[in-house]
Specification:
Layout: H1 6-9, E1 19-20, E2 23-24, H2 26-39, H3 49-68, H4 76-86, H5 90-113, H6 119-129, H7 139-148, H8 153-160, H9 164-191
Antiparallel strand pairs: 1-2
Helix pairs in contact: 2-3, 3-5, 4-5, 5-6, 5-9, 6-7
């Protein structure tokens, strides 16, 4: 009997995050990011706790800003631009770091679904391509340990659902949406519209 996949049961998929005129809706984005963090539970390794804590901490920074200023926080870009005016960069930095974590996940899963690599290989390569350059010598070993602590590929995909073809199809849809949102946010930061000094 086929059971619902992880992607069907998650609170919000990145594929369901509204994007209008290149702006990403805050509430739905945060729900999708929280769902992604729960994906790390399936990796079943205490080593990933640090990754989850980091992402959850950054989600909280963005949500706190949204709750404090809901009128000017409809989109992620609105939050960053409002903080530029206020000369407060808490949520701006939180979004930057959260996006880096999302990129790590996207790169790792893209490498894995398009190959026969074990997860630890894909996550280690992704870490070396994305986050490592932003981490100091104290943080790097902690994250490297987490990347190596991934479960076997077959066990991970089995936890996503017992119909591999359905899992793969839904993962690719979710992944494409995640990659699109990461690119939108990164392009926004690269444009310099948020101000300097991050």
């Amino acid at each position: 009997m086929t059971t619902p996949t992880f992607f069907v049961t998650m609170k919000r998929s990145f594929a369901d995050v509204p994007i209008e005129a290149g702006k990403v809706s805050t509430t739905e984005f945060l729900e999708a990011a929280e769902s992604l963090v729960s994906l790390f539970d399936l990796l079943a390794s205490a080593a990933f706790t640090v990754v989850q804590m980091d992402m959850n901490g950054n989600i909280k920074k963005i949500r706190d800003r949204q709750l404090a200023n809901p009128v000017i926080s409809a989109t992620l870009q609105d939050i960053v631009l409002s903080e530029k005016v206020d000369k407060n960069k808490t949520a701006t930095q939180g979004l930057l770091w959260l996006t880096r974590g999302l990129q790590l996940t996207a790169v790792a899963l893209r490498k894995n679904i398009e190959s026969t690599e074990e997860l630890n290989e894909s996550f280690t390569k992704a870490y070396n391509e994305t986050l490592i350059k932003f981490h100091n010598m104290v943080v790097r070993p902690v994250f490297k340990l987490a990347m190596k602590a991934c479960p076997y590929r077959k066990d991970f995909y089995a936890k996503l659902g017992n119909d591999y073809e359905a899992v793969k199809e839904q993962l690719l849809t979710w992944l494409a949406a995640l990659e699109r949102i990461v690119k939108i946010i990164q392009d926004f930061y690269d444009s310099g519209k948020y101000g300097k000094g991050l």
